[in-house]
UniProtKB/TrEMBL annotation:
Residues 1-23 are annotated as: Disordered. It comes from the Bacteria. Residues 26-153 form the Pyridoxamine 5'-phosphate oxidase N-terminal domain. SUPFAM superfamilies: FMN-binding split barrel (SSF50475). This is Pyridoxamine 5'-phosphate oxidase family protein. It comes from Conexibacter stalactiti.
Amino acid sequence: MQQLDPTPEFDGRFSDPAAGPTPWAETARALEQAELYWLSTVRADGRPHVTPLIGVVADGAPHFCTGLEEQKARNLERQAQVALTTGANSWAAGLDVVVEGRAVRVEDTTTLQRLAAMYLEKYGDDWRFGVGDGGFETDGHFAAVFRIEPAKVLAFAKQPHGQTRYRLG
C-alpha cells in the first residue's frame, strides 16, 4: 500500500496520553508483511461470516482469493462491503490493522499473473497458482481473486496504546 499517503487522524479518546499517530508507512508495512488476515463478510440473512485467509498487497490494496462455492464468495455476490483485519495476538506489543472497503473481482490476466507471482514469493511453492479463465487455477480448482478497495483503515498501536484512522475514499 505504498503509493497511498493518507493523513493520519489520531484519536486521543481511545489512546494512551503518551501515544501519537501511527505513521502510514508503518501501517502499510504491517499489511504487506502479514502472513494471515481475517476477512469479514455478511451472509444473505445478515449474519457475519469471518474466516482466516492469506493474501498480498498490490497497488495500494489487499488482495485475496477464494473458491466461488465458498461462503465468503457467495456473500460477496450480494454484498461487496468487507472488513479485513490483521495484527498481533497480544495486548502489549505489535500493531493491529483494520481495512474497510469494497471487494472487487480481479480478472485481468496481466494483473492476475503479477498477483500469482506475489503469492509465490510471499508464501512459497505451496501457493503456486496458474492463471486462466479470469482467476487462479491450482490442482484442478478455480479461485476467484478479489481486490479490496480501501475506504478506511484503522491502526491500533499497542505500546503505548494509540488509535489512528486513515480516510481513503
